[in-house]
């Protein structure tokens, strides 16, 4: 994983080092942005989506994560002490971070199975 702070992101975006940042991020399974502004977080998500053409997932728990959650393909909001803004802007909401594994593995599998059945039914009805 890659952990990057706001100062470093500021240097990357102002110095035109996006290509080198993406080359480094390509070798990581996850990228964590800490001590960064909401604009920087959403810029990282948009940059990765646009340049690498991959599916992005953003997880946030407060109002400062709303733009990042909305910029991602899948947004997960964690309800807690910082308010409900992230939950209201997200695609999925969980109460604690520990429920993330179940959301991705169990409910993701169920969603995939339902989508596959729907596609088969779609072809059946059109044939």
Low-confidence spans: none
The CATH superfamily of the largest domain is identified as HAD superfamily/HAD-like
Kindly state the number of beta strands: 5
Helix content: 55-70%
Mean of residue pLDDT?
A: 90
Tell me, briefly, the overall form.
Answer: globular
Q: For the report, how would you describe the main beta sheet?
A: 3 strands, parallel
List SSEs in N-to-C order. Answer: EHHEHEHEHEH
Cα radius of gyration in angstroms: 17 Å
CATH topology of the largest domain: Rossmann fold
Helix/strand-derived category reads alpha/beta
Beta-strand percent range: 15-25%
- Please tell me the total number of domains: 2
> How many helices does DSSP assign?
6
In order across it, which strands form the biggest sheet? 3-4-5
CATH hierarchy: architecture of the largest domain: 3-Layer(aba) Sandwich
For the record, what CATH class of the largest domain applies?
Answer: Alpha Beta
Q: How far apart are the termini?
A: 47 Å
């Amino acid at each position: 994983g890659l952990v990057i702070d706001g100062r470093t992101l500021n240097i990357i975006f102002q110095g035109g080092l996006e290509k080198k940042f993406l080359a480094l991020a390509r070798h990581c399974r996850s990228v964590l942005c800490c001590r960064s502004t909401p604009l920087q977080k959403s810029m990282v998500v948009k940059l990765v989506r646009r340049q690498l053409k991959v599916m992005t997932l953003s997880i946030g728990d407060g109002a400062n994560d709303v733009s990042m959650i909305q910029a991602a393909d899948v947004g997960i909001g964690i309800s807690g002490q910082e308010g409900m803004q992230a939950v209201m802007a997200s695609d999925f909401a969980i109460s604690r971070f520990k429920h993330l594994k179940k959301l991705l593995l169990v409910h993701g599998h169920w969603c995939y199975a339902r989508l596959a059945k729907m596609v088969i039914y779609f072809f059946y009805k059109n044939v």
